[in-house]
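Weekly modeling sync, notes
Attendees: S.R. (lead), two postdocs, one rotation student

Agenda item 3: backlog of single-chain predictions. S.R. asked that every request posted to the team notebook include the full sequence so nobody has to chase files. The rotation student volunteered to paste the first one in as an example of the format we agreed on. Action items at the bottom.

Example entry:
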Amino acid sequence: MTTPSKLQTGLRDLLLARSVTRGEFVLASGRRSSVYVDARKTTMAGAGLTLIGALGLERLDARGWAPRAVGGLTLGADPVAYAIAAAANARGRAIDAFSVRKSAKTHGTGRRIEGCFETGMPVVVIEDVITSGGSARDAIAALREAGAQILGVLALVDRQEGGRAALEADGVAVDACVTATDLGL
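Predicted structure, as returned to the notebook:
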């Protein structure tokens, strides 16, 4: 087992303080859980954005992924992708962000993928919390249809409930900044 980085420890602590709630919940996957991780309370906080951007770059580098852009299904992936793009820019690196809509717009350009995306681009799909992997799979399908080269999926939190295994069974590499185990869940 590897020792968590200072950034991973900081994210774990911030998620525990802001985002982990106990009770009875139905997750996006339809599963019931006694723990809910509302990552947005961390990903939309100034301290969270700063930490997540740096940690996201650390994880991309650890995996050897060199995306031209990062993003995923809106809304959960958006602040994570924006934080990584901003941190990359601050370090002189060219990584942009995009958002994948749940469905294509019915007006304007009719796009499903918004922001800095071009056909053929190498991308990393972002997830705030992976449970079943459904949101990441949806984003991957839209991106592949648009001609993206998928390098992998980077999740802020892996709930360790089968999503990672499902994505890896599809041939998609997955990395997570922290896991349910890291959070003591």
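Discussion: group reviewed the output briefly. The mean pLDDT is 94.
Action items: rotation student to repeat for the remaining queue; S.R. to check formatting next week.
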